Amino acid sequence: MDLNIAEVCIVANLQTMGPLYVTDAGKGFFDNNSGMLLAARIIITSGMGNQASGMNKLHGPVPIPELELDQQYLCYFYINEMTQKPNPDTPYSTGKGTYIVCIVIPEEIKNDIRPYEKQIEDILNLEGKGIEFSETMSGELTTKLTEDISVRMKSIFEHIMQSFDLAPLFEATSLFNLGLIANLPPHISIIAKKLILNPKGLPERDLKDNKVVNTLINADLVTRVTKDGESWLIPR
Amino acid sequence: MSDQIGTLTVYSTRGGNGKTITSVMLATAAAKRNLKTVIIDADLEAPSLMHLLKPVRDGPTWVDFLEENVSDIRELPRECNIPNLDIIYSPLPKVGKNFLGWKTKDWWQQSLKRSMIAEEELHDIGYDLVVIDNQSGTSLNSVNNMVLADTSVMVIRPATYGVGAAENFIGEMYRVLRDLKPRQDYYMWNQVHVPTDDHESLILENFLNRWDESMKLHGLLYGGKINFSTKLNLGLLGETPNMMDFFEETRKPIDSLLDKLLQAKGIETS
């Protein structure tokens, strides 16, 4: 199998949004209606851990309806490689010993995570696209690729955890929401407070943290305008 | 007078504690010291300033500014018969199809933004002191107005049910407010029974000591005590209460509180 052609799918289907194609989209890995997995050899996916079943099974996403885990993962994100057992009898299996890199969402936080599925999909998209396959030979997973995936998975993990802190920002409609301000991580709330105490705006140079500023702009809570040739930030 | 004092809000955990009278008295005391003062009736659910200081003319209201029907803050303040004191009124709450449901959370968030712009602009156009007669209780409006102010006075009539139920909220609210910006928060007892014998004195003293300690733990500063006044209470039964009479009745504790507020800002007036 030529990994340069069809080697990785990134699927983030935590609930009912349907398969999301990322890498090499349009090459027919999945049938949208059946959820059939055709040719991918590496699947980067995310699903909900299911302690209640007592069977250590990961349910979903669509192409992999049930995946047996080695142990129960409850209180943390599990990021590892697993091999999907060949099972030619099921239309959902490749039967090809596909490598699956999986982020398991612990059962306890399922409900917490559900409102943020879209953000997690975006993170998987963003990070997954950075995996470098160019040196991979057909039919095998090189050590370099495996390491690259491992690094990417750690990055996805960290990104998701950071995003949980930021999630309330993306749910909010205004920065003038005191409940929001009171519950933000300190490095964000210090900037947010400075902004709301200046309702007509501040020169961007007065706020030292570009990363936080960009997050607030992306969350549509701050508008960037130009006044007299200078960049200003106005809280919404 | 050129010193800018800042913005003061008068608050209480529930209605009937004397917020509006205290707001007017503090604003009057400041105006009498030549501080250019404006008082905002920000109790949008039960505005009452128009009953104590009757409008001398029609004009746009606080809500008009919050809803951006008016953009020039100078259109809002209306003069009254007390020199140096202007009033910004609020309209009576809407009834009909919008009764009790006319403000969403988004409305209040934008209202906070507009209020903060207004507060800044009122100082820009020359007001030394902005006094906000706040809504009582735990509402988005009352907390918004607490955010606007750099000084607050919580008015309490002595009754355990009046402060007890709100104690936890009070602690949390002031913690969040102080985290937002530097501020001074006071509490003031209002209409305190004047004891007629030792037994009454003991009951009152025990009550006040218990709650003074609690307020101190929440970081609130003692603002003073206004004793029960028959003249003031009877005066409120009339159609046109005389604010100057009220002022004379409460002058000592009100002046003393104003002294504290001004001293905290390093300002001396007489």
Detailed description of the structure:
The complex is a heterodimer of chains A (236) and B (270). Chain A is α+β, with helices and mostly antiparallel strands and 236 residues long. Chain A folds into two domains: 3-167, no CATH class; 178-235, Arc Repressor Mutant, subunit A (Orthogonal Bundle). Chain A has seven helices and nine strands, in the order αββββββαααααβαββ. In chain A, helix 3 runs antiparallel to helix 4 (143-171). Chain B is of the alpha/beta class and 270 residues long. Chain B has a single domain (6-262), classed as Rossmann fold (3-Layer(aba) Sandwich). Helices cover 44% and strands 16% of the residues of chain B. In chain B, strands 3-4-2-5-1-6-7-8 form an eight-stranded mixed sheet, with helices on both faces. The longest helix of chain B is centred in the C-terminal third of the chain and has 22 residues, at 243-264. Chain B is globular and about 60 Å long. Chain B starts with 5 loop residues before the first strand and ends in a 6-residue tail after the last helix. Chains A and B meet through helix 5 of A and helix 4, helix 5 and helix 7 of B.
Summary keywords:
heterodimer, A: alpha+beta, 2 domains, 6-stranded mixed sheet, elongated, B: about 270 residues, alpha/beta, Rossmann fold, 8-stranded mixed sheet, about 45% helix
Topology at a glance:
The complex is a heterodimer of chains A (236) and B (270).
Chain A: H1 3-6, E1 8-12, E2 42-50, E3 57-59, E4 66-68, E5 78-83, E6 99-105, H2 110-113, H3 117-128, H4 143-171, H5 178-183, H6 186-196, E7 202-203, H7 210-218, E8 222-227, E9 230-235
Parallel strand pairs in A: 1-2, 2-6
Antiparallel strand pairs in A: 2-3, 3-4, 5-6, 7-9, 8-9
Helix pairs in contact in A: 3-4
Chain B: E1 6-11, H1 19-32, E2 37-41, H2 49-52, H3 62-66, E3 78-79, E4 85-88, H4 105-124, E5 129-133, H5 140-148, E6 151-156, H6 160-164, H7 167-180, E7 184-192, H8 198-217, E8 221-227, H9 230-235, H10 243-264
Parallel strand pairs in B: 1-5, 1-6, 2-4, 2-5, 6-7, 7-8
Antiparallel strand pairs in B: 3-4
Helix pairs in contact in B: 1-10, 4-5
